[in-house]
Amino acid sequence: MTISHIKESELLRIGDSIRILRKNKGWTQKKLASESGIHEVQIRRYENNHSLPRDEQLQKLVTALGVENDFFTRMENMQYGRNK
């Protein structure tokens, strides 16, 4: 999965999506870190939009959160009214 075609300003919203998905599962950041294999501090940085997940980390999050591979891309497209 590649996210290189998404503008950085759009990627900032991924952190909000990660937080919502995590909370919908009833998980803490620590639990998401454990399930994804990504350090808890990094999860916090993603959710606070201080850092953007690279493709490898994004794939780990997709797997842990149980969403489709293109989930974050589709959300951005829907938000901006783009159909791909």
Automatic annotation (TrEMBL):
Pfam families the record matches: HTH_3
Domain HTH cro/C1-type per the UniProt entry, residue ranges: 18-72
Name of the protein in its database record: HTH cro/C1-type domain-containing protein
GO molecular function (one): DNA binding
Record InterPro entries: Cro/C1-type_HTH, Lambda_DNA-bd_dom_sf
CDD domains for this protein: HTH_XRE
